[in-house]
Write a structure and sequence with these properties.
Blueprint lengths: L1 E11 L3 H12 L4 E4 L13 E2 L1 H9 L3 H7 L8 E5 L6 E6 L5 H10 L5 E2 L2 H14 L3 E3 L2 E8 L4 E7 L5 E11 L6 H6 L3 E16 L3 H4 L6 E4 L12 E7 L3 E8 L10 H12 L7 E15 L3 E2 L2 E3 L5 E2 L7 H20 L9 H23 L2 H6 L8 H10 L5 H15 L2 H4 L2 H5 L43 E4 L2 E4 L9 E6 L3 H8 L5 E6 L11 H5 L7 E4 L5 E5 L6 H12 L4
Parallel strand pairs: 1-2, 1-10, 2-7, 4-12, 10-17, 21-22
Antiparallel strand pairs: 3-6, 4-5, 8-9, 9-10, 11-14, 11-15, 12-13, 13-14, 15-18, 16-17, 19-20, 21-23, 23-24
Helix pairs in contact: 1-5, 1-9, 9-10, 16-18
Length: about 575
Amino acid sequence: MHTDVVTDVLIVGSGPAGASAALALSTYGVRNMVVTRYASLADTPRAHITNQRTMEVLRDLGVEQEALAKATPQHLMGNTTFCTSLAGEELGRVRSWGNEPLVQAAHELASPTVMCDIPQHLMEPVLVDAAVARGTVFRYSTVYKSFTQDADGVTVTVEDRVRGDEYTIRAKYLIGADGGRSQVAEDAGLPMGGQMGVAGSINIVFDADLSKYTAHRPSTLYWVLAPGATVGGIGAGLVRCVRPWTEWLIVWGYDVTAGTPDLTTEYAESVVRQLLGDDEIPVTVKSSSAWTVNEMYAETYSNGRVFCAGDAVHRHPPSNGLGSNTSIQDSYNLAWKLKLVLDGTAGPRLLDTYTAERAPVGRQIVTRANKSIGETAPIFEALDGLTPQTPEQLWANIAARKQATEAAEKQRARLRDAIAHKVYEFNAHGVDLNQRYSAESSTAVVPDGTPDPGFARDPELYHQPSSRPGAKLPHAWITSGTRTVSTLDTVGKGRFTLLTGIGGEGWLRAAQARALDIATVVIGPGQEYEDPYGDWARLSEVSDSGALLVRPDGYVAFRYRSAAEDAEELLGQALRRILGRD
């Protein structure tokens, strides 16, 4: 064995977490390498829902338009349908993924970006191609074996599957982004809560032209309530659109205690036919695979110089479409911190804030995704479909809802209510955007002495913008000359940014006096940026002479509501805390 590779950051895994970590690090000028055991990027659709916060990350990293070009657009995602089969009876729909008019308005108010559906096998090349173009060294067919770490770095042993030999890679930091069975997380001894393998699911990828069943009710998801659909899995049979309206993925449950079924082509086709309800339409099964529903999360995301991200530290079903989004956001949170520590701007303590900020998010999304599975049961209950019975009895219960009786009217109302409650899975705008980091646990957030007002509305359903330290900078459209830009477009790019207005000259001098590269943004009449709609004045929650210091990831780190004679000292104290230099 020989050591012939040296890098600053080694990333194990090329999925959404690993690929986005590489992209961010290369964008920031940090030397990095990715190793993946596979000979190619993802070859199946897997994760797909891409929410506004993730699109904001891709926007800052310069690949938003590339992702949109490969995605199914938002307006084709949102007629989530519940039916007995695609060709069978429709039981109801939910306007989803921001397509309900009031929710759509909330989406437009919340962000300059739009959510979309970009399957993982299309997303990964966008991230990896850009990362490699910016300097990432990428090695396929390279298996992570083990690591040892010391005060100065991490030595990682890998196996080249092409040559069949082992060698070591020396890095200053290691990121384990190696998925739900992460060997890096296990070797790092990261403590986990929850459990694996709580239910069984099967993915079946197939081609079929289903336009006649789907084009009039365009959606990403079609939920099938059929006999056996409550067994294991995610609570019902699911027909998912990969590409309108010819590429599809079915998710079907199995009894995990009975073992994985034999995934023959005949078995896969029988499941496809049951959920489609059409025995004549041509179908080509491309692949099938089994997986388990997990409810597990890491309590800490790092051990020394080893950090984990993505499914390595939060493992959950695909409900709510949170998996790849949270993975990409993990890496985005970590990358700028690694950059500042590696170039000596920040002390190592800054890296402790990664767990402090992201572990609560991971725990929340694991809980939410599994709760969403449970929220499918009331739909079956409305049809008396959870008690053991013959298929004929379920069909009779479904047919009974059409009768002109008081009992049937109550059944129809129960079914409508049960389907409507699925907004907590399909329109959870607050889950997507309300992630806030606590100054009590993270030193990269500076408390401003104000009490936390909490949320005025359901924080899972409704986004509530705030400039409070630990919140994401609110989006508002402002202008610069003839350009209209988002406030989010003025921050990021790997730098801290100070936003102020007329009367904030003291804050500008304070920012310019720092050795740290801090971009400055002045918003007001006659300034570089103007606020013609008045939206920023309403959302900023500070006076014109106040200041917001925004981190490279778009989160507010420090807030002061007015001018201050000691602005330089206040900003200096804040930065020393954030950068781990106090």
